[in-house]
Amino acid sequence: MRRSDGGFVTAEAAVVLPVMALTSMALLWTLMAGAAQIQCVDAARAGARAAARSDPPAAAVAAARSAAPPGARVGVAREGDLVRVQVEARVAGPGPLAVRLKGEAVALAEETVG
User: Greatest CA span in the chain, whole angstroms?
Assistant: First the structure.
């Protein structure tokens, strides 16, 4: 008596396809979080450059916000001759998973140079 293995293929596909879909979603979310982290770092650098040029703090915040992910918080602080810009953003993930990303840049104020 010979049995058919046709049902095993269906069962294996029923298990493998959802796993592949979840893995693909996790990879996409990781790429999105990585891109948002790069945006935070770039935004902090843009804000630090603007603040180092002695632009008003509002202009430095605007420069950082223009490069930051949507909904990011921007902070500019002067510490002696240094200007520190922090950009924080929250990236929503699947379900309750969310990540808070942070980028920071420090620049020497130009009026102290030369």
Answer: 93
Would the CA dihedral through 39, 42, 46, 47 be positive or negative?
positive
% the chain with pLDDT above 90 = 66
pTM over 0.90: no
pLDDT at site 5:
60
Long-range contacts of 85-89, Cβ-Cβ distance < 8 Å, separation of 24 or more? 85/44, 85/45, 85/47, 85/48, 85/51, 85/60, 86/44, 87/40, 87/41, 87/43, 87/44, 87/47, 88/40, 89/36, 89/39, 89/40
pLDDT, tens digit (0-9, with 9 covering 90-100), for 86-98: 999 999 887 788 8
- Alpha carbons 99 and 71: distance in angstroms, whole number: 13
